Design the sequence.
């Protein structure tokens, strides 16, 4: 790690799972906790956390959604956190949006303060919202990731997919138009990456479950381009993107007439495996698509029954 690695290990990070990492994105949480353990960085879960309100923003009640995020931020500050780790892209965006709105608009600030006061909570103040990608890149650093690598990559090329919420509109995690930090981290553990121009194109989000024809088409475009570029897997940072691309490949095949069986992996799964994590503790056994390829790539250091 960097020069202050002992300080990082001693401090650890306060961690906000959000709803998805306890449901469809459980493999993300499993791999995140494993990776941070292998790096010697403790994660302490935020106590009494609630939904960030991401699905309520704009479409239902933006004010109520802001209050949900404000409560999370206030709890984080109350529990002594300068930094709050938010792995879900939607959670990250919702929390950042609430902070920004409170800072920009006095009326929003007043409403938030009054609502928090009724719950016995104080204003959210200056808690920093962090994403694991940014933490690994800036706090841990590329050399440390490389040094701690214990396994040689056995798989093929991958396409790194960031989705649309993590890098826009707020800066901090990576560049808005052409983020590269995921590629740089994966290259440190020997994973070859392709030049994937659609890395920030939207997967359709919840459209896959509401306007399925539109959502499936958007996901088809992402899968098709990854395959065209020679990628055998897609690696992502977003639980909703991962779910859409992983769980609906059979439906996409029926709609498009083209067959896809591409593994959709979390970047924490790939990094965690390279640093010595096991298949089950990284959630690799939970994959829907590309299971045969995942077995070939990751079974070298695991018994076959781990994939059952």
Sequence:
């Amino acid at each position: 790690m960097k020069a202050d690695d002992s300080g990082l290990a001693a401090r650890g990070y306060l961690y906000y799972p959000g709803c998805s990492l306890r449901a469809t994105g459980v493999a993300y949480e499993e791999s995140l906790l494993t990776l941070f353990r292998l790096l010697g960085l403790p994660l302490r879960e935020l106590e009494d956390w609630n939904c960030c309100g991401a699905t309520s923003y704009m479409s239902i009640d933006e004010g109520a959604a802001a209050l949900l995020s404000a409560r999370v931020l206030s709890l984080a500050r109350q529990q002594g956190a300068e930094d709050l780790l938010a792995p879900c892209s939607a959670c990250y965006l919702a929390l950042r949006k609430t902070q920004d709105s409170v800072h920009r608009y006095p009326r929003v600030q007043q409403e938030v303060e009054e609502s928090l006061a009724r719950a016995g909570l104080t204003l959210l103040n200056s808690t920093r919202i962090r994403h694991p990608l940014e933490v690994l890149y800036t706090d841990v650093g590329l050399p440390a990731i490389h040094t701690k690598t214990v396994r040689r990559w056995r798989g093929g090329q991958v396409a790194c997919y960031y989705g649309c919420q993590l890098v826009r509109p707020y800066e901090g995690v990576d560049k808005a138009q052409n983020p590269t930090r995921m590629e740089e981290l994966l290259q440190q553990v020997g994973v070859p990456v392709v030049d994937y121009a659609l890395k920030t194109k939207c997967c359709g989000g919840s459209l896959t479950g509401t306007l399925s024809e539109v959502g499936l088409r958007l996901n088809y475009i992402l899968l098709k381009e990854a395959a065209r570029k020679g990628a055998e897997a897609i690696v992502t940072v977003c639980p909703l993107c991962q779910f859409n691309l992983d769980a609906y490949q059979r439906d996409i095949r029926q709609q498009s007439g083209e067959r896809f069986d591409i593994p959709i992996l979390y970047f924490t799964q790939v990094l965690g495996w390279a640093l010595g994590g096991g298949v089950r503790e990284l959630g690799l056994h939970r994959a829907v698509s590309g299971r045969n390829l995942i077995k070939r790539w990751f079974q070298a250091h695991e018994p076959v029954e781990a994939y059952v």
